[in-house]
């Protein structure tokens, strides 16, 4: 039996511009993603029967709910690859989950990207990167970026990924909430809050791109932004307190990642990141605190 194991990072959104809802129900996005070193691992073992199965081992939050049937997005990825390539084999997927579930860090999308790469290897289906990227876009808006990794601009509904010029390595602290937020619910709240107003087409702020080009952490901290902030705060008012604690610890910037509820803080260096982490843990405003570095590579065989 052939086995392949893939490590895949989480993402944060350095900016997230959200436009008016489209006819297909999606919102146009203008975002800059950064992959950070909080990794899930997906192991694929090819089998001779035609079953696609999954087990999930929760490393961080044992109470998180991740489906272990066909609703698991890694299983959907395996089915899509099999249907596309016509292979007849089955696969046992084993996910080691560290990325917070429903945390706005694209944990499910990460597993889908990893499953594509792992099954492609275990089945010997030999698809190249461009073909895997096409399948990734069918699976979800964030999945192509998790194949790509590094820093990248996301357009369309997030699935159109293009590289950005960037320097530097950044120290992040993530405050993970006890319970996740549904991405769908946060977008619905965004629509409710904006009802009757003209939502502009989203753009990536020039000052954020300039900060990344220069590798200037202070400027990057000042230019972090997220158009879903009010919607996430409306559903979880207590996140305002979490953001304040990080800012009181002199974080260079604070932002809700994606649709939340994870709040991320930019630190000047490793010591500063420890100070922010201790302030958050001490204040008891979140269930877990993670220190992370970015950017890192996307889904890779190990
Ligand atoms: P995003 O940042 O892309 O909006 P998220 O990080 O907020 O996503 P996920 O962790 O991807 O959220 O989980 C969203 C939901 O998807 C979960 O509530 C879970 O039920 C379901 N799900 C399906 N497959 C997976 C998976 N492999 N890992 C985690 N969640 C999964």
UniProtKB/TrEMBL annotation:
It holds the Pfam family GHMP_kinases_C. Coiled coil: none annotated. Belongs to the GHMP kinase family. IspE subfamily. This is 4-diphosphocytidyl-2-C-methyl-D-erythritol kinase. It comes from the Bacteria. InterPro entries: GHMP_kinase_C_dom, GHMP_kinase_C_sf, GHMP_kinase_N_dom, IspE, Ribosomal_Su5_D2-typ_SF, Ribsml_uS5_D2-typ_fold_subgr. It catalyses: 4-CDP-2-C-methyl-D-erythritol + ATP = 4-CDP-2-C-methyl-D-erythritol 2-phosphate + ADP + H(+). Gene3D superfamilies: 3.30.230.10, GHMP kinase, C-terminal domain. GO terms for molecular function: 4-(cytidine 5'-diphospho)-2-C-methyl-D-erythritol kinase activity; ATP binding. The active site is at residues 11, 142. Its EC number is 2.7.1.148. Residues 208-277 form the GHMP kinase C-terminal domain. The keyword Disulfide bond does not apply. ATP binds at residues 100-110. Residues 72-150 form the GHMP kinase N-terminal domain. Transmembrane segments: none annotated. Catalyzes the phosphorylation of the position 2 hydroxy group of 4-diphosphocytidyl-2C-methyl-D-erythritol. The gene is ispE.
């Amino acid at each position: 039996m052939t086995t392949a194991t893939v490590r895949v990072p989480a993402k944060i959104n350095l900016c997230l511009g959200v436009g008016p809802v489209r006819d297909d129900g999606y919102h146009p996005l203008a975002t800059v993603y950064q992959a950070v070193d909080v990794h899930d691992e997906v192991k694929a073992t090819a089998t001779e029967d035609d079953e696609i199965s999954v087990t999930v081992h929760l490393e961080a939050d044992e109470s998180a709910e991740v489906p272990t049937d066909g609703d698991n997005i890694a299983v959907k990825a395996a089915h899509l690859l099999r249907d596309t390539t016509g292979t007849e084999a089955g696969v046992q997927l084993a996910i080691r989950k560290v990325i917070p579930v429903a945390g706005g860090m694209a944990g499910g999308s990460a597993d889908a990207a990893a499953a594509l790469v792992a099954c492609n290897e275990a089945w010997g289906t030999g698809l190249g990167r461009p073909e895997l990227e096409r399948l990734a876009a069918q699976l979800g808006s964030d999945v192509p970026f998790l194949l790509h990794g590094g820093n990248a601009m996301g357009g369309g509904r997030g699935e159109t990924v293009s590289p950005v010029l960037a320097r530097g390595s950044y120290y992040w602290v993530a405050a993970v909430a006890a319970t996740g937020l549904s991405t769908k619910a946060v977008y619905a709240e965004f629509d409710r809050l904006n009802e009757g107003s003209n939502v502009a087409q989203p753009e990536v702020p020039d000052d954020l791109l300039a900060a990344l080009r220069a590798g200037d952490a202070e400027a990057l901290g000042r230019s972090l932004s997220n158009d879903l902030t009010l919607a996430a705060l409306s559903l979880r008012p207590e996140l305002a307190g979490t953001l304040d604690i990080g800012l009181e610890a002199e974080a260079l910037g604070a932002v809700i990642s994606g649709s939340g509820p994870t709040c991320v803080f930019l630190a000047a260096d490793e010591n500063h990141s420890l100070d922010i982490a201790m302030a958050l843990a001490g204040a008891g405003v979140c269930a877990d605190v993670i220190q992370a570095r970015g950017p890192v590579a996307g889904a890779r065989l190990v």
